[in-house]
Amino acid sequence: MTPFQYERAATAPDAVRMASNSASAKYLGGGTNLVDLMRETIETPERLVDVSGLSRTIETRPDGSLLIGAAATNTALASDLTVRRDFPLLARAILAGASGQIRNMATVGGNILQRTRCAYFYDDAARCNKREPGAGCDALDGFNRIHAILGASPACVATHPSDMCVALVALDAVVHLEGANGTRRIPLADLHRLPEGRPDIETVLQPHELITAVEIPALSFARRSTYRKVRDRASYAFALVSVGAALDLSEDGSVRDIRLALGGVAHKPWRALKAEDALRGQPATEANFRAAAEAELTDAAPLRDNAFKVELARRTITAVLSELKGDAA
Amino acid sequence: MSIIQDAVKTAVRFVPDRWLPGASPDPLREKHGLLGAPISRVDGPLKVAGQARFAAEVPMEGLAYATLVHSTIARGHITSLDTSKAEAAPGVVLVMTHENAPRMNAPAMFMSRPDAVGASDLPVMQNRDIHWNGEPVALVLAETQEQADHAATLVKVEYESATAVTDFQAAKLAAHHPQSILGEPPLFEIGDAEKELNEAHHRVDLVFRTPRHNHNAIELHGATVRWDGDELTVHDATQMLNGTAGTLAEIFGINPDQVHVSSPYVGGGFGGKALWNHQILAAAASRLSGRPVRIVLSRESVFRIVGGRTTTEQRVALGAERNGSLRALIHTGTVAMTEHNNCPEQFTFPARHLYASKSFRLEQSVADMDMMANTFMRAPGESVGTFALECALDELAEQMELDPIELRRRIEPEKDPTSNNPFSSRYLLQCFEQGGERFGWNRRDPKPGARREGEWLVGLGCATGTYPYHRMPGGSARIRIEADGSAVVSTAVHEMGMGTATVQAQAAAARLGLPLEKVRFDYGDTSLPKGVLAGGSTQTASISAAVIAANDELVKELIRLAGNDSPLAGLGADKLEARDEGLASVDEPGRHETYASILARAGRDHLEVEAAAPPPLEMMKYSMHSTAAQFAEVRVNSVTGEVRVCRMLGSFDCGRILNAKTATSQFRGGMIMGIGLALTEETLFDPRSGRIMNPSLAEYHVPVHMDVPEIEVMWTDIPDPHAPLGARGIGEIGITGVAAAIANAVYNATGRRVRDLPITLDKLL
Amino acid sequence: MRFTINDKPVEAEFDPRTSLLDLLRDHLGLTGSKKGCNQGACGACTVLVDGERINSCLALAVQYQGRAITTVEGLGQTGSLHPLQQAFVEHDGFQCGYCTPGQLCSAIGMAGEAARGVPSVVTADLGDETVTLSHDELRERMSGNLCRCGAYNGIIDAITETFAADGSQKGDAGARKAA
User: Fold this and answer.
1) Which residues of chain C lie closer than 8 angstroms to B270, CB-CB?
2) Which parts of the sequence belong to the 2Fe-2S ferredoxin-type domain (chain C) (predicted)?
3) A222-328 has which fold?
4) Rounded CA gap, A32 and A44, in Å?
5) Closest Cα of chain B to C164: distance in Å?
């Protein structure tokens, strides 16, 4: 680990000010990903600004929306009764991730900004455009069983590993940011980038811009939502494919509205808009669920080892929506 | 196998048991009471309190901390080394490379002589040559671990690569017979198996593949070392104390008695806690810097410099007559190995002993690769060999429309099918019968896919497990009786969680007629009488044979000390037994004297004897193997292909069980590693670079709590008449047969045969 | 920098790079907490901070100034073991003993979470504020603690005996000698 200065911020503007003094400064939340990356010297900040003491409140607002301080721990968010009742998809996604210990440490902000598990990203003996722009990508022809099938580029086929983000993107979450030039809000769906030619640039955040909160708009039918994670162990493993969904059915059995997102398939949490569009107004049948999944996956471009993800995603989407339909009945 | 060994083997077959040291029945084998009782671990309270001090936790004044730098190429040489930045970094004590490392002899390879335990015979940091991707090229020593870790990233190394063999598929083309497979010929044939196969009524001919594995004991490999002049002290995590001392001594050109290795607690071994580069380099750096050194490998470094189980490609072909008897048993294949080690993953061994067949063809080849030397890992050979053989049998049984257990009944041999030696004790069919009954085997529908619960397909599978009995030669034990009649039994052996400390205290107490509280078992240090290594499920029998020998000496000494005034006067050793804290007449219960009394009368404050175990000739006269029937019930998700083991039962015949509690844990532990072998574990070796790409516990998936169901274990408890204590060793057998039982259950659930491990969900979609 | 460790005030100066685990092990001589991966993948380093379980290997010590830390040494000592430690001994909830301190601290933190109603991914009804520590709940909640020796059954039995109110989960009937 490269030596660094440690400072603890009391407010978000303080944090931004502290970070602004150093080009390589990083914000430290729970440290569960950053500390590991620093040990691997993939991250080498000269300054760490500890933001774990900033807002961790989880506020339910009168309109039913939620405002979550970015320093809230994963455990706190998953345990919040409003989240559990009104947005079970989110609670389940968080609880499907990592371990009890890590969820106690990890913050909401840190979870959003965690980095890929690609083996070639982690190994400094390998070529990786994400670590070293222009170096090449050893994952393209290497072990890429856990890699992306959607939205990848020849420069990078890595996936975003978060479970929580899959739920957040399905729920149209908005992130609140604090930067040198003040505050702004952007949809989480727009925060993470697809790799294109610059996989090292993973988000649209400006230098030293800090995530201060996440806002989840009210969504009444999110009470009927769930998250399903498919992985190589029964617990404590990253997703091969995950599906987060909320389903709103009309009395006639057609899909009034739907939210659908996928994890483990792309460089960012993947909102399945094509599938949603295909289903809105259509009868909620297994055949239609499958057709919608097909629609979402028509552009899938599997690699040597991960073709199974296409079929797995198709099946899991169908199963999750069928399950939600069953719950609604 | 040499001509002399063969001649001894042949001669031993005709020698009566009573002439055979080590083969005469141990009187303790039938004794009940303390032996076999579910005693809690004697080292348990220390371990749960966090007070057991492991190798990297031994305090020393002035410690410097070490970190390794690994090569990033598989073969070639270093062209330039720039250590200036690292040397200038804060806290750095020393940067050691091949340019300044002390001159050291290459390690003597394992089995090249009795105390040689080198994992390979490559010299360690002695020249610029690179032999595998991950080989240490520098060691950085600093005042703190943080400083050493950082400085290690500042060492700049440039290489010139040479063409490396890092693709098993390519390496296989040049596969060849090794000199031997652990003393057995690489090709063994009875009859013309291919011809018999072709003429057989039923045939299966299948290829199985198993990947590389790593032991991944949770304790990281580490050592704390110090030189005092030419005396080297190594606090190590090892399962081979004396071998480590002997091999290190030769490497550094000193006498074995100048190396002191201590390892009272080992945080898991499974074959991996051996002598690797890190102890050698730590000792070298300590010598060079004049500082005591602590080295704790990172998990990545463990993957890079500690070998694991190698990959195998196996063919099993079985030909059967209509009545179920085997006409041909063919088990052949290839493993990856290096030119610098000798560990051929003896996957054909189960087939040599398990089943009767008219003809055999058993052949193993090795494909030389440029990689970290592979090594022994829990049930080397048998773990992956039983996967192939037992899956093939399941497929044959299906073809014959026979229950798989019935098929095994029909091919049960009367004597060892390849050596023709009698079995010392074998109750495999009893394991199947009793295990099957308890597991509910008769509820299995042989038709695949017949049982569904919601999304889940449910299936049952079974397989045979097996592991040989071995007793290591060369172990000694000391027995010391104190004035108060208490005893200390000691030998330089190992406790890595197998229960050695507890079981040997139990056994010593039973042998000496003492209550457990009055017996202490000392182990884990080379200052004790020379012990045996912990490997191959051999420790318990090997220690016991040494303790029996020492006890014979003890009784002789006690008779001498007791003299003519003792109630025991005039009784020879054969008329005496240990009981009630002393010796007693076998025939006249009233004649008894305590150890304390004998010593007091003789004016002795203690009595100490030491003896070595006799050579293990019983192994030459008998075919000695433990066997097991493994049962698994799995659920396979019809949507996602996920496999969950929901029930497991292991039914074991391992001779006498010495502690029901610790034995249960040994069996279960092996079975759980078998779940990993079957479903989740794989070391990803990149064929382009020869580099391991998942050197982490996050990406190498050992089973977690949620992967593991309640596991039932049962055993025959029939003492082996030819093993000390009647016990054959239980460390490895738990893992054997498990992968096959699970794979067979997956087939029963889904109708899909997966013949390459691990059975990940993508193979079932 | 100040900490409260096992109820005692502790002052220490160290490199900001030092993890809480290394602070405990290398600086303070509290070697009960173990290092198994140093990347949050095995749980051997689990300690309690203000009663909550965390992986101390991923925690920069500097970030935990002023907090109350409990390690295995603070649970109980030989002769006066915590009931859970005693249960681990009785149920053989370990073999080599290396993952054990982490399993113990994790189980205690886990029991606290369950008492506070923290759900898990296997909790059927997320709206239910009370947690019943079933076999599946325990296995899921303890999955962040690897045991390579495979003492999982004994660990779950020990935790069940100590923490699960409903004794019906107790299941150490796994070992049976055949008649």
Assistant:
1) 148
2) 1-75
3) Enolase-like; domain 1 (3.30.390)
4) 15
5) 17
